[in-house]
């Protein structure tokens, strides 16, 4: 399939990801022409600062600070929104769709908060919006859900969706290093969002699980309806003590459909048994485990962040954009369902790991046990770790199955006890049973 037409691409943003796309499309021009089914031309890129030094060489004539030079240029067919953020990115995405462009995006933040509006606009304009790079970097998970596993209903989707956090947790565990040290390397490698809190506090993974939830369940779940906790509170000791329970700490994003039909979306550091393949996915790699009612379980692993992995996904979308421009139907609609019922914290249960510091004296354990008993929480394993000569000790315990609601109340009561000198820190023990 080669129409002879040259398709012109405009870039909104020329940072880490866009430079990867530019580099690979330039370097593999001929093979890309054959595989994409058409000739492409890198027409123009909009940036904030034209004078900034970039790793790829771009003639100054192809750079602009005015995004509308791209959007209003009738000779540009495809607009790649690779600038990030939500305000300006939304405005420009909608404007590009209205101008009849096919839009390709890696921007999970704008899709999570404005996906319904963007897809509605694309439908209204008879255009197309492709977003493979928005979830799990180089893993083609959007295609997997929309095409390969179309026959399935999903009771549980979970995995590692933030490369930066996985990179930090892996290296903390291997090198006994603090997360601040490793964050610097993650920045240098281009994994980290411009706003680092998106990664560290779990919001980036929440944006991605919202997109997977939309594809799997046909409804948009805002981050305000999720349980979201990042990795800031994790200590090196947690990684070491997790081993005593044959587990590893990972930041897990999940969308679970309970038996009563309610949905529960979450992002939190979790203990995963070492026997789970996802627990053994390290560094910048992501993993997505899908439990489909027809296929059973499938697990998809690959680089979740970084220039080349993400460029691979963007180029796949450019290929779909070309096919669409050459007459193939757009793969964009998912049956939009009514507002989902989200599970309450009392409907969601599991086992928990708790860690807190106490005064090391008689009666303390009895007091703690009575607080837990009041919430009907049963202790499974308990370790006391003496960490210095201050007369204090760490209590590390796991519980039998209890609810999120009960743990929340127990932690509030524990933190108000005079003998407990640190906020109880909770790590969920992830239940991958469906
Ligand atoms: P980046 O390196 O920070 O690049 C952003 C680019 O956008 C820069 O070229 C910047 O211009 C330009 N820009 C930002 N605001 C602008 C504005 N208001 N007007 C004009 N230009 C503007 O970001 P990135 O890492 O490539 O990420 C781009 C998108 O991909 C984000 O949505 C991100 O979440 C997503 N993503 C990133 C990765 C990754 O591994 N990095 C992976 C998957 C998805 P200057 O160069 O002049 O500053
Ligand atoms: N900051 C993101 C991550 C980039 O670390 O996963 C990929 O979406």
Summarize the structure.
Helices cover 35% and strands 25% of the residues.
The CATH class of the largest domain is Alpha Beta
CATH fold naming of the largest domain:
Dihydrodipicolinate Reductase, domain 2
Shape by Cα distribution: elongated
Give the biggest beta sheet.
11 strands, mixed
Q: What fraction strand? A: 15-25%
Structural class: alpha/beta
CATH superfamily of the largest domain: Dihydrodipicolinate Reductase, domain 2
Q: Hetero groups bound?
A: NADP nicotinamide-adenine-dinucleotide phosphate, L-homoserine
Q: What CATH architecture of the largest domain would you give? A: 2-Layer Sandwich
The first-to-last residue Cα distance is 44 Å
Residue-averaged pLDDT, rounded?
Answer: 93
**Radius of gyration computed on alpha carbons:** 24 Å
Structure description:
With 434 residues, the protein is of the alpha/beta class. Helix 4 runs parallel beside helix 5, helix 5 runs parallel beside helix 10 and helix 7 packs across helix 8. Bound molecules: NADP nicotinamide-adenine-dinucleotide phosphate and L-homoserine (HSE). L-homoserine binds next to helix 7.
Write the layout of secondary structure elements.
Layout: E1 6-12, H1 16-27, H2 29-36, E2 39-46, E3 63-64, H3 68-71, E4 78-81, H4 87-98, E5 102-105, H5 108-124, E6 129-130, H6 141-148, E7 154-160, H7 163-175, H8 179-188, H9 197-200, H10 203-217, E8 227-228, H11 236-244, E9 247-257, E10 263-273, E11 285-292, E12 296-303, H12 307-325, E13 349-359, H13 364-374, E14 379-386, E15 392-399, E16 402-403, H14 404-415, E17 425-429
Parallel strand pairs: 1-2, 1-4, 2-3, 4-5, 5-6, 8-10, 10-17
Antiparallel strand pairs: 7-9, 7-11, 9-10, 11-12, 13-15, 13-16, 13-17, 14-15
Helix pairs in contact: 1-12, 4-5, 5-10, 7-8, 13-14
Bound molecules: NADP nicotinamide-adenine-dinucleotide phosphate (NAP) and L-homoserine.
NADP nicotinamide-adenine-dinucleotide phosphate binds near residues 88 and 137.
